[in-house]
Structure of TetR family transcriptional regulator:
Amino acid sequence: MGNADITRDKLIAAATQTFWEQGYSNTSLRRIALAASVDVALISRYFGGKLGLFKATLTTAFEWPELVSPDNDPIEVVINKYANPASDAHQTSVIRMIVMNANDPQVGELVRQTLRDTLLDPLEARMGGPKASERLAMFIAVVIGASMVRQSLQLPGMATAEPDLYARQLRHLIEAALNFREDPADL
Amino acid sequence: MGNADITRDKLIAAATQTFWEQGYSNTSLRRIALAASVDVALISRYFGGKLGLFKATLTTAFEWPELVSPDNDPIEVVINKYANPASDAHQTSVIRMIVMNANDPQVGELVRQTLRDTLLDPLEARMGGPKASERLAMFIAVVIGASMVRQSLQLPGMATAEPDLYARQLRHLIEAALNFREDPADL
DNA sequence: CAGAAATGTCAATGCTTGTTGACATTATCT
DNA sequence: AGATAATGTCAACAAGCATTGACATTTCTG
């Protein structure tokens, strides 16, 4: 006890959970402080305020070294993460946090920018072939949509599916996204 | 002027826009009243309170008769709606509203239930073939994900695409979703 | 036209929010 | 040990929130 770093860590941990579940504007500092067993005033002291605390949680939110590592296939990394019940909840909460805050006038632009810098730009750089930008967008769309349907909407066709089936659904959609080619014959 | 129905309509219109853009908890009645040029107190008078006003916007939110009509192909209806710039913004805001409120403890279950009753169940009823439930979930996932990527995340690969290209992307993903079959050879 | 009902306006309520400053406690260093 | 800085605690603040009731105005009705 007595170490400010511990307090900071406890605050970030509690803030991450609450911010991601409820969104930025819908989260009160008092709730975070309560969850962290820390006085509310320390948030303003250590992070300068609510926005500072949110920024602090953002920096660790998008860290996903395996995904951007050149040794791994991003597709397999994603499927393994999202089809594994242990990590699916966490990954899905990240997505929900992005979606929920992307339109917040206070933090929306910050969230989008951080997402691009830390994840999307590296992914696009590794992505070869024609229409790389378009196919990346479709790839992200599929992952986001599946997560939303599975966890937020809880549709039976995905929410109750066992991990194996869900993994096949996800793989099917991802491969379709990456196989997109602008072919005039498609019209 | 002077007609309460007009006031009610103005309130519902303003509330729909604000609720769907910012989410339920993040919207203040004062802002709605201001946008509708109506006194705040009338909201509680006419709709019983904030929740009542939200429910009133919900009932009109999911009305989409063309989609559930047996005369039309749902796929084409969706593509036409979402690839048309005039209606895309509105449709996307509906989706964003669903996603943003699906986890709200106050209105989440209400939103999910209304969505299922008015849209998903009729769609599933019309959907034949094996794994209908799973393919419907994938279909919804694709539409939601594309909307989120295009409007909320604003990824260049989808946000800046002209309607034609976006329509092709959407169609490609939808067809992939509907073509899903659980085939052991996929493993 | 007079009375009644409907509709709109305004102020005040109690509650929650983020933030700040004063004070108490604990740790650190000479 | 004693001075000094770091850390934690508490109370108060101004602002915004949803909601309510009293009052003013308009509209309808007999």
Remarks:
- The two ends of chain B are 66 Å apart (CA to CA).
- DSSP finds eleven helices and no strands in chain B.
